[in-house]
Amino acid sequence: MRDLVAAAPGFEDLFDAHVFNEDGVLPHVFFWDVVQETVASFLGGDETDWRVTLRFLEEQLQLDVPEVTQVVTSSFLFNLPWPDQPGHGLVDHLGPAMGARFAAIRPSG
């Protein structure tokens, strides 16, 4: 998570708030907020660049670290907008590793 914040500094305040409120960061809870910020950025309303986030997460999935793969898959990809929700077009920009994982966990989009 610290590597994500380093790659996408727009998440720094969010990360710090989680540390303060939870006495640490719970990855699945933090990534719920990362999804919300990423979708907002995609829709044009947030400072965090969604492209940087997707690129970073794609690189992390390619490293194939089980703990990272689990968090990215279950807490980021699964929580992306559904076809009838604003921001669903973000899924069209997933890289090959994330796209494959997304298709496996949400075959109908």
How would you characterize the overall build of this protein?
The protein has 109 residues and is an all-alpha fold. It has one domain (2-105). Helices cover 63% and strands 0% of the residues. It has helices spanning 2-7, 12-22, 27-42, 50-63, 66-77, 96-105. Helix 3 crosses helix 5 (66-77). It is globular. The two termini are 26 Å apart. The relative contact order is 0.14.
Helical coverage, percent range:
55-70%
The average pLDDT is 90
Ends apart, CA distance between termini: 26 Å
Radius of gyration, in Å, reads 13 Å
Count of separate structural domains: 1
Give the biggest beta sheet.
none
The secondary structure category is mainly alpha
